Amino acid sequence: MRLIGKVAIVTGGGSGLGKATCQRFAEEGALVVVTDINLESARQVVADILATDGKAQAKHQDVTDERRWTEILEQVVSDHGRLDILVNNAGVALAATVEDETLEKWRKTQAVNGESVFMGTRAAIAVMKEQGGSIINISSVEGLIGEPLAAAYNFSKGGVRIFTKSAALHCAAKNYAIRVNSLHPGYIATPMIEQVAQTMDPEVVGEWQARVMGSIPVGCMGEPIDIANGCLFLASDESRYMTGAELVIDGGYTAR
Predict the structure, then answer these.
(1) Which residues have C-beta within 8 Å of that of residue 1, sequence separation ≥ 6?
(2) What gap in Å lies between CA 76 and CA 45, rounded to an integer?
(3) Contact indicator for 32, 10 with CB cutoff of 8 Å
(4) C-alpha to C-alpha distance for 202 and 209, rounded to whole angstroms
(5) pLDDT, block means (10 residues), the chain with 256 residues
(6) Sheet holding 55-60, edge to edge
(7) How are beta strands 246-249 and 7-10 bridged, if at all?
(8) Active-site option among 153, 176, 241, 253
(9) Residue 64 burial (CB < 10 Å; 0-12/13-18/19+)?
(10) Nearest 5°: CA angle at 74, between 69 and 77?
């Protein structure tokens, strides 16, 4: 029970990496607040957790809504007296090159993947600074290396990486006992990967899939549990000496 007594918020917790992380946290004793823009999916995750005697509750959240961030944090602290863990996981991925990307889609990607991480981190620091905590910002291997078909996504995830370091240094300078780290998944078998393929030109999907699979040294995509276990480590006291760091879980994708 590595998270016994801790209260966690996981955004985008209704599916994919967020769902696996919520379930893993609950298994280790945390009370998990599952937030998602799709409330029904969040409620289903909560139902699954409660069925295994875990502790969880669902909340609707559009992570691009600044006022909703304030409401969520106030509700959690009012209900549970504290917040120990925030996982900024919610994200979108829309395939497009720098030439093909539209400003509308670019701004949507930055709002969900970048601005929400800023708002969530800022809000969590405000309530964690008295007792400490762990903030985990989900970036990507695409925040470390380039992908020609992901111009907006590269920009957003690279921003998450360096913003995390800035926030971590601020908290350390203020002696807040808040650790802020980024986690960088590689290609993981989730609905998002399928959605990315659907946004691509059909003529390039096959080439992209072959290129990606050929670039993973271990020879296969990861599973959501692989990322959930990384989040568990960063959320637990086992990572007490880590802040401003990048935890890469990618099957060797960025090792070349």
Answers:
(1) 28, 29
(2) 18
(3) yes
(4) 11
(5) 98 98 98 98 98 98 98 97 98 94 98 98 98 98 96 98 99 98 95 78 81 92 97 98 98 95
(6) 55-60, 31-36, 7-10, 85-88, 133-138, 178-185, 246-249
(7) unpaired
(8) 153
(9) middle
(10) 125
C-alpha span between 11 and 22 (Å, rounded) = 9
The three-state secondary structure class of 10 is strand
Give kind and range of the element (H or E) at residue 246.
strand 246-249
- Do 136 and 85 meet the contact criterion of CB atoms below 8 Å apart? yes
Residue 190 · residue 15 · CB < 8 Å: yes
The identity of residue 256, as a single letter, is R
Token pair 């992209």 is found at: 208
H or E stretch including 31?
strand 31-36
- Predicted structure pTM score: 0.95
Tokens found for residue 70 = 């304030």
Here the tokens at position 157 are 């995830």
Q: How far apart are CA 1 and CA 186, in angstroms?
A: 27
153 is catalytic: yes
Q: Would you list the domain boundaries of the chain?
A: 7-248
3-state secondary structure of 119: helix
**CATH code for the structural domain at 7-248:** 3.40.50.720
